[in-house]
Design brief:
Rossmann fold; 3-stranded antiparallel beta sheet; 9 helices; about 50% helix; about 15% strand; binds adenosine monophosphate
Length: about 210
Amino acid sequence: MIVILLGAPGAGKGSQAELLVKRYQIPHIATGDIFREHFKKETPIGKLAKEYINKGQLVPDQLTNDIVRDRLSQKDVQKGFILDGYPRNLVQAKALDQLIERHGWKVTAVININPPQDILVNRISGRRICSKCGAVYHVTNKKPKVEGICDVCGGEIIQRKDDNAEVVLKRLEVYENQTKELIDYYRNQGILQDVSGLEIAKTDKEVVQILGE
Ligand code: AMP
């Protein structure tokens, strides 16, 4: 099963992906998480990516395609995988097509999570993450048991630097200008499915209807 999750920042791709991982036992591959892991470890990729991420811009395609190619060469993707945050533009989508073809795989579905704009802004501006394990919280919708401390690993909860108001607007603009064209790209191939993205549980039901139990 190969699932591509599309949707603006704050659409809930990560939250839906978590549920899919549990249900289908396949890995969640989020390019944003991979980049954040690199810059936590201060690798050369991390240092480069950070410059783009902190401005809300896309990391260059070549580098992004390379990290995805490496990730998809690992053994745990044999039963399938969920892509979140990749592809982000047509160049990446075409690189992914080639990669999938080379492996002899087939995309099961592209799920377009599409909540209204005000929900996106509220979700991103209130989002907090664990600085250690990346678990996601929200200042009103999903508080940790102890303020500032991650329920999962005890790490410190922080706000992503690119979740501040100014960078968020830039990221939404990048989505409008570059990522949205993917919706037509996949719709024309007949593999795009729209879901509401309003509440996690409701959206999950819609996803199950598409992918099966
Ligand atoms: P995300 O966690 O998906 O919101 O991604 C955070 C940031 O990582 C984005 O704003 C980009 O700077 C970078 N990034 C993540 N995925 C990609 C991608 N597929 N192509 C380019 N940049 C990406």
